[in-house]
Design brief:
mainly alpha
Length: about 230
């Protein structure tokens, strides 16, 4: 029962992340020459993390991201069974969130699905998969390394952890939006990509692997580096 509650918390948290983060991106746009929309989208993703950290953090740890869960797993903070449960719940939550966005925009009569439900892409790196992969590895490394440091028992950050993590996600979005749209979260990329593919918007599935592999590599590297530094 306790595990089911954790999985439910991860489902809800990831669903809210996609609704609020990707929904904001759809409404305000993420063009680097449109500063207001760019910053609003970055803040939306960061503020969701802050809110969910204090909402479901005490239940599941508020990973709401398979990359974060992988970092925690490698660091010895969770079991393989829970890792699998978390990842499944996160991906289902992202799909549900994208479904909610599709329903809202469809019922609202919006035919121009701006940004393909917030799907990630490689336009900012001229379509280069290698560059996109590197961007995602670096940004996820920074994000997960921060999470591991903030949540370490040795850190003693207490109730401020959620704020630090949320603002770090905002920070990596400020750099990454103009490059890849910033994933650092495979589930967050999978949900919108599937929704966009179903309604026939863009070609989000073509480069989806970049936003799955990149964050997982970045998270694994962060976990290995943090364990070495913490010894």
């Amino acid at each position: 029962m306790k595990s089911l509650k954790k999985y439910a918390a991860e489902f809800i948290g990831t669903m809210v992340l996609v609704i609020m983060g990707c929904g904001t991106a759809m409404l305000v746009g993420c063009a680097s020459d449109s500063g207001c929309g760019y910053i609003l989208t970055a803040l939306a993703f960061g503020l969701v993390i802050v809110g969910m950290a204090y909402c479901v953090g005490n239940i599941s740890g508020c990973h709401i991201n398979p990359a974060v869960s992988l970092g925690v797993l490698i660091s010895g903070g969770m079991s393989a069974k829970d890792f699998i449960g978390y990842v499944i719940s996160q991906c289902l939550g992202a799909l549900a969130g994208a479904g909610v966005l599709a329903a809202i925009f469809t019922l609202g009569g919006v035919t121009d699905m701006t940004g393909a439900f917030g799907s990630n892409g490689l336009a900012g790196v001229n379509g280069s998969s290698a560059a996109g992969l590197l961007v995602e590895i670096v940004l996820t490394f920074i994000f997960v390394l921060t999470i591991l440091g903030v949540t370490s028992k040795k850190a003693g950050h207490g109730s401020f952890g959620g704020i630090v993590i949320g603002f770090t996600l905002t920070l990596v979005h400020i750099l990454g939006i103009g490059l890849t749209g910033t994933s650092v979260n495979p589930a967050r990329s999978i949900g919108p990509a599937v929704a966009a593919a179903i309604v026939g918007v863009g070609e989000p599935m073509a480069c989806l692997w970049v936003f799955i592999v990149g964050p997982l590599i970045g998270a694994a590297l962060a976990a290995v580096v943090y364990k070495a530094l913490e010894k």
